[in-house]
Amino acid sequence: MDIRCSVFIAASIDGFIARPDGDIEWLHRPEYETAELNGVTYESFIATVDALVMGSKTLKKVLSFPEWPYEGTPVIALSHQHLQIPAHLEGKVEVMAGDVTKLVATLAKRGMQHLYLDGGQTIQAFLAAGLVNELIITRIPVLLGQGIPLFNPVGSEHELRHVGTYVSDNGFVQSRYQVMAGARAFHGLQASNPALLA
Question: Structure pTM?
Answer without folding.
Answer: 0.85
